[in-house]
Amino acid sequence: MGLGIFLLICSFYFLIRSISYLLRTERSTGTVIKFEKSEEKREKDNGEEEVMEFYQPMIRFTTLSGEEIVFRDMFTYSDPKFKAGDKVRVIYDPAKPSKAKILSHYNIFLAFVIFMAVAVPLIILGGGYFFTQRYLQ
Q1: Which residues contact 99 (CB under 8 A, 6 or more apart)?
Q2: What is the largest CA-CA distance in the chain?
Q3: Phi, psi dihedral angles at 117 (to 5 degrees)
Q4: Domain of 71?
Q5: What is the pLDDT of residues 87-123, one digit of tens each?
Q6: In the prediction, which pLDDT does 111 show?
Q7: Alpha-carbon distance 73 to 133, whole Å?
Q8: How many structural domains are present in the chain?
Q9: What is the rounded CA–CA span in Å between residue 61 and residue 92?
């Protein structure tokens, strides 16, 4: 249960950090200009080797001050959800526009969701064990 509470506190830290980031950023519309392709070789269960292809979108947008920025999304996709020429919502810190992100729940709240998804079951299981031990004695 202690680990669950620690992870719950961490998840709220990430939530506050994400909200703080959202409050200090600007929004723009960007265009997917291309994809950078990478490959990873993996061995299948039967011993054969397969090549997995991943794609990372490159986005171009213009800041409110008129500066044109090109950035690489922080996630790679085996099946890209965008294609070259698509418009995407972009969020960026005016002090660091090259560190922009595609505006999505996934990009902004991923750490919070992961920590919360692990913390809650641990708290429930740990709490259940704690109360069960207390009342069964």
Answers
A1: 71, 92, 93
A2: 70
A3: -65, -30
A4: 2-136
A5: 999 999 999 999 999 998 888 999 999 999 999 999 9
A6: 93
A7: 48
A8: 1
A9: 10
What is d(CA 45, CA 22) in angstroms, rounded to the nearest whole number?
A: 43
Residue 90, judged by CB atoms within 10 A of its CB (0-12, 13-18, 19+), counts as buried
Distance CA(123)–CA(93), nearest Å, equals: 35
**3-state SS record for the chain:** CHHHHHHHHHHHHHHHHHHHHHHHCEEEEEEEEEEEEEEEEEECCCCCEEEEEEEEEEEEEECCCCCEEEEECCCCECCCCCCCCCEEEEEEECCEEEEEEECCHHHHHHHHHHHHHHHHHHHHHHHHHHHHHHHHC
The residue ranking higher by pLDDT, 106 or 34, is 34
Tokens standing for 16?
């506050």
Distance, in Å, from the CA atom of 93 to the CA atom of 95, rounded to the nearest integer, reads 5
| Tokens encoding 131 | 């109360």
